[in-house]
Amino acid sequence: MRAAVMYGAGDVRVENRPDPKIVPPADAVVRTVVACVCGSDLWPYGAMPATDTGRPMGHEFLGVVEETGADVTGLKAGDLVVAPFTYSDNTCDYCAKGLHISCRNGGRYGFDGVDGGQGDGVRVPHCDGTLVKLPVAADSELVPSLLALSDVMTTGHHGAVTAGVGHGDTVLVVGDGAVGLCAVIAAKRLGAERILLAGRHAPRTDLGRDFGATDVVAERGDEGIAHIRDLTGGVDKVIEAVGTRQALDTALGAVLDGGTISRLGVPQYEQGPIGPAEFMRNVTLTGGASPARAYIEQLLPDVLDGSITPGRVFDRTFALDQTPDAYRSMADRQVLKALITP
User: Fold this and answer.
1) Superfamily the domain 2-151+291-341 falls into
2) Considering the domain 158-287 in this protein, what is its CATH number?
3) Which end of the chain is more exposed for a tag (fewer CB within 10 A), N or C?
4) What is the pLDDT of residues 183-209, one digit of tens each?
5) pLDDT tens digits, residue range 134-153?
6) Cα angle at 151 between 81 and 289, to 5 degrees?
7) CA distance linking residue 287 with residue 157, whole number of Å
8) Is the Cβ–Cβ distance between 35 and 340 less than 8 Å?
9) Which of 50, 101, 115, 75 is nearest to 264 (CA)?
């Protein structure tokens, strides 16, 4: 099969790799219908040391089950499924409390002999616990929004949930990438009355307004913080969807004492402000990697009935052989989120 492999910063290749096969009897083989490039893929794309072996890429995909192992009971060949961005057994103690990202038997695509999602097919471990069957055809117009449940929409939702967003709230979303825009959808869905979106790319912030953002703050740093506080006096709920230290500083500068910041962006820093000044403010810092599997079935009905349309974050489609171009286009900010079709 063809699959995208990263060999170092800026070096993504589409090459032939072994076809996926059942290994443990709880596996399934899924033929990919659509996949995508994640914003988190751009961090190794910008900084990964060169390697001779390469790393299979992609962790967001939707496809058709082609084969299942002998222990699989909930899926069969021909089922259309969406895969959360990590696999999990959905039975361990962590999964039972909705923390599938920490599953004791789980893992990540592209590691430990498991295929990446940017390819013709994927071997999915623990498929009964991982994959969610979809009640639509593979050519449904809903497919992009259903794919968003693999990661970007469930991650935005995780930010809104862990920030404690509820009816009537004022919420700040820092970052106008796909995750930030889906966080706007999630905050609106949970009843937020006012949603500020901190971003400076007009096509993205315009989409954010369509999703429910009521205000856009284009300034950065101290100027951006001052603008947010001028508009609101400070906010109780912040969703930080970038992962840079500047984005965290913006969140801390805008949040009110006693407020909550949920971090969704994979941190590109090792140290942050945790000293006496922050201690005295009683700010709650929460968030983290989304347990996507825990949220898919919660959000699925709203996608199916059109209440939310997170698939709109995909603004360009690339063939699988064009995956290197998809990475370049996203890294150059020419594309918000690239859809990939084998």
Assistant:
1) Medium-chain alcohol dehydrogenases, catalytic domain (3.90.180.10)
2) 3.40.50.720
3) N
4) 999 999 999 999 999 999 999 999 999
5) 999 999 999 999 999 999 99
6) 130
7) 11
8) yes
9) 101
